[in-house]
Amino acid sequence: MSKERLAALAQQLRMYKAPVAADDDDAMGQPSERLRPKKAAVLICLFEQDNNEGIRVILTKRSSGLSTHSGEVALPGGKAEEDDVDDADTATREAHEEIGLHPSLVDVVAFLQPFLSKHLLRVIPVIGILSDRDAFNPTPNAAEVDDVFDAPLEMFLKDEHRRSEKREWMGEEYLVHYFDYETPPAAEAGGGNKKYLIWGLTAGILIRAASLVYQRPPDFLDQTPKFKLPRVLSKGTIMP
Questions:
Q1: First to last CA, the chain
Q2: 178 Cα distance to chain centroid
Q3: Which residues belong to any copy of the Nudix hydrolase domain (predicted)?
Q4: Are residues 5 and 88 in contact, defined by beta-carbon separation less than 8 angstroms?
Q5: How far apart are alpha carbons 158 and 214 in whole angstroms?
Q6: Which residues contact 119 (CB under 8 A, 6 or more apart)?
Q7: How many CB atoms lie within 10 A of CB 78?
Q8: CA separation for the pair 142, 144 (Å, rounded)
């Protein structure tokens, strides 16, 4: 029954077409005066366990030794490389390198509208279905990932264990959401609960993904920033 539900979800998501941003150079098919940011892609890998706990998403805790975002919760993914065929190739390649999730196990079904990070990185969320969870044995790359875990996707639509704060960037006010998640006790003797904080760009992406999967808005205000790429003037000068 679980695989049947996942197949129905995959069919639903394949019909989704992300909105096109007005200043998206790729979509417009012509050069723009706006800055062309570096591209990245993250994998929103969804699966369902046999205990009918609903759709879950695979997450990582970044290595504490990384120079940026060390120790933070993230979706597997990273910057595009020249040999990548498309965004799906970037996301699944990075997931394979980071946590040992082989691309052949993931059925890519949808792409969300790009997010723009504070470092002006254009991040494309790629939704994939993992129909056979038992086939995936997490093997985190110690140089990049400290831990691999999963969380219920629907929690990113609920107001429980959530808080937010207002911020402003490039003249736009927006909300940053923080979700506290605690894993169930480990099955082995002496295993305790693990606590994670999921926030920022990762939380924003998961709110949008959950809204699409469950076909409803979150139970809280989600004030998404309307960021626009800066314009590039002569001699590389960047203006808002």
A1: 51
A2: 15
A3: 37-194
A4: no
A5: 12
A6: none
A7: 20
A8: 5
DSSP 34: B
Q: How confident is the model at residue 231 (pLDDT cuts 50, 70, 90)?
A: low
Give SS3 for 35.
coil
- Pairs from 50-56 (Cβ < 8 Å, separation ≥ 24): 50/2, 52/2, 53/152, 54/152, 54/153, 54/154, 55/9, 55/152, 55/153, 55/154, 55/213, 56/150, 56/151, 56/152, 56/153
Q: Comparing C-alpha atoms, which of 147, 53, 41 is closest to residue 95?
A: 41
Residue 110, strand partner residues = 127
Tens digits of per-residue pLDDT, 86-143? 999 999 999 999 999 999 999 999 999 999 887 778 999 999 999 999 999 999 998 8
Per-residue model confidence (pLDDT) at position 27:
40
Q: Coil, strand, or helix at residue 103? A: helix
Task: For domain 2-28+35-239, give the CATH number.
Answer: 3.90.79.10
Residue 90: count of CB within 10 angstroms of its CB:
24
Residue 234: pLDDT band with limits 50, 70, 90: very low
152 phi and psi angles, rounded to 5 deg: -70, 130
For tokens 């002006």, name the residue.
120
Q: Where are the domains of the chain?
A: 2-28+35-239
Condensed to tens digits (0 to 9), the pLDDT of residues 1-53 reads 578 889 999 999 999 999 876 555 444 334 445 556 789 999 999 999 876 77
